[in-house]
Design a protein that fits this description.
The relative contact order is 0.14. The protein is 37% helix and 17% strand. It is globular and about 60 Å long. The protein has 2 domains: 2-126, no CATH class; 132-257, no CATH class. The strands form 2 sheets. The protein has a 5-stranded mixed beta sheet with strand order 1-2-5-4-3. A 4-stranded antiparallel beta sheet has the order 6-7-8-9. The two termini are 31 Å apart. The protein contains 6 helices and 9 strands, in the order βαβααβββααβββαβ. The longest helix is centred in the middle third of the chain and has 28 residues, at 152-179. The protein has helices at residues 8-23, 46-57, 65-69, 127-143, 152-179, 219-236; strands at 2-4, 30-33, 74-81, 88-99, 121-125, 188-191, 196-199, 214-217, 251-252. With 263 residues, it is an alpha+beta fold. α1 links the parallel β1 and β2 (30-33). α4 (127-143) packs across α5 (152-179) and α5 (152-179) packs antiparallel against α6.
């Protein structure tokens, strides 16, 4: 879903429209473009621009604009029909992240191309929900049936396909970021046989005022946890609980502890 918001009220309206579209299973993510309003705003640093975006989006957050600009997450927990199990599930990781063109400026103290976009924008997404939709799409493509209509054996085949497919997508995405980044100034790399990725960003912070190195889980780590919750439902009827699987795994580590590995 692609939309535009220029005021706090428009942000609220766009978010509510996004939730309705999610409930109708029409979208997965939502990119809200937030155009600048003056020539002066076009000269902002990253810190100034993320504060402008934070002021807009604090209208739908429990945190103040300053808190959003300095490392807090804009997180939403939504009950939606799970694309895999077809039951209502609480997805706890719908997070919003701010992007701006200034993040690609090597001279900016908050330089980080991962947070760069051609125009200021905020993206809403849930890794768990996005992966669930990916699994459903692959089931329809491979078996011509919904996941909840498959046999246990067929689900096993599907899980292997989607696990490594999702991992490859993540590796390609990070590979592209690595290629466009001055990694001496802004480290970005995969680690431990591509089970983890490191970056100067604490996913899922809305924005940050200080750049430090954090470790994040790759699909090889978090996808089996999601699959385990699905199988618990199919085998016992217990509603999936993603409170642990949705944990971003953003463990702050000292850069000296890390070793870079090639993709």
């Amino acid at each position: 879903m692609l939309t535009i918001a220029r005021t706090a009220q428009e942000v609220r309206d766009r978010y509510e429209a996004y939730v309705r579209a999610l409930e109708a299973r029409e979208v997965v993510a939502c990119l809200i473009i937030c155009p600048t309003a003056t020539e002066e705003q076009n000269t902002y640093s990253v810190a100034q621009e993320v504060r402008r975006l934070s002021a807009l989006f604090s209208s739908i957050s429990e945190y103040s604009s300053e808190e959003l600009a300095t490392g807090h997450a804009l997180n939403k927990k939504l009950y939606l029909t799970c694309p895999v199990t077809n039951v209502k599930v609480l997805f706890e990781d719908f997070d919003a992240v701010a992007f701006c063109p200034q993040s690609d400026d090597l001279d900016d103290e908050l330089y980080d191309p991962l947070m760069s976009a051609p125009i200021p924008a905020v993206n809403f997404n849930s890794d768990v929900y996005a992966f669930s939709m990916f699994c459903r799409d692959m089931s329809l493509q491979k078996f011509k049936r919904e996941v909840f209509e498959l046999t246990a054996s067929e689900r096993g085949q599907l899980y292997e396909t989607v696990l490594y497919g999702w991992q490859r997508i993540a590796e390609r995405t990070l590979g592209n970021y690595i290629n466009m980044t001055n990694v001496q100034k802004c480290p970005v790399y995969l680690h431990d046989d591509n089970k983890y990725w490191f970056a100067n960003h604490q996913d899922p912070a809305f924005a940050e005022s200080v750049k430090e190195l954090y470790r994040h889980d790759m699909p090889l780590i978090y996808v089996p946890k999601i699959i385990c919750e699905w199988e618990q439902y199919f085998n016992t009827g217990r509603t999936p609980d993603f409170s642990e699987t949705a944990t971003p795994g953003s463990q702050h580590l000292d850069a000296s502890e890390s070793t870079c590995e090639a993709i």
